[in-house]
Design goal:
Elements (H helix, E strand, L loop, with lengths): L2 H38 L2 H19 L7 H14 L9 H19 L1 H22 L11 H17 L1 H4 L5 H29 L2 H27 L17 H33 L9 H84 L1
Length: 373
Amino acid sequence: MSSRMRRMLLRVTPFVGIAILCGSLLVVQSGINANLANFAGSGIRSAFISFLTGTALLVPTSLKGHKSWKNGLISTFEMIRDDKKDILMFCGGPLGAFFVASGVLLSPLIGFALFFVAVVTGQLLMSVAYDFTGFYYTERQTVSIIQLTGVVLSVGGAITFQGDALANGDESGVLALIGVAAGAVIIIQSSFNKRLSGALGSPWKGALISFIIGTIALFVAVLVETVITNLSTEDILVGSRWWHYLGGPIGAFVIGAGFILVPTYIGFVLTFASVVLGINIFPENFGFFWGSALSLSLFLFSSHSLFFRRKREREKQRKKERKRERKREKEKEREREEERAEKEERQREREREGQREKKRERKRERKRERKGG
């Protein structure tokens, strides 16, 4: 392995590891929330409780940051005042609520494997679109043929792995499309939360605001559901265990660390390719695991090539800039030399003029003497 490859791996491996962990935790979170729904009475209530516990966890973690809350909020509203499009920063919470609710409601209907294969497909397609277009203030990154090949392998593996379920002709196909939308929503939410976190000065502050808004949205959904379906609130959460409430804290970590912090350093495509691998570590998705691992390897190889190509481009740019700087210095030095030469020439001209004036004065003086004699 070349030294350049080692340097690249040392640079991206910690972030890839975090993203893989976040992918695994997404599966765990959905399982926990689906179990909690049995005690809460509905999937919407389970998602609300998950967001509420996540919000509680994020309160102490959001106290630190290079900006105070006051300065962060001032910066946020100044950004919105300058560009109305920045109001979308506050939409990350409802989008996150949609994903969590989708996981709770769809997983029991179509199975965890098909749901997360659909999520994976949505994530990869939307992450490529984000890196290619630089949508909503995200840094535009080169999407190589190798990366596109990895996406095709992952999506193709997803369809192959769940082909029987999709070919049954029942509602699984339609529900799987909702799962694809949920996966795409994660990427969109990530860009909104990333922008909000930049304004507030901390990924955890951005995650907290997102969770608060998502909790409010789910609370309204719970009220509407209770009124429409006349759902009973008796014996709610009776018999639940402590681990049923870990979905929120897990979601808080995934949003703050995986979906806001990591894409800043390695881009959306590599981040969510790693998330895909984390999702497919679990045995029920294991048939899709090796395709994901191959895709991630392709992404890493491509990122290695892109990283050092960009490095070479930056070095060339710096060389060009240094060359232009030397050229500017030479031009300035030449201008200074010309200015000094002009100044010296003017000085010499004044001296010659002074000498001529003295000669003329002496001539006039001699003429006066001859006239006086």
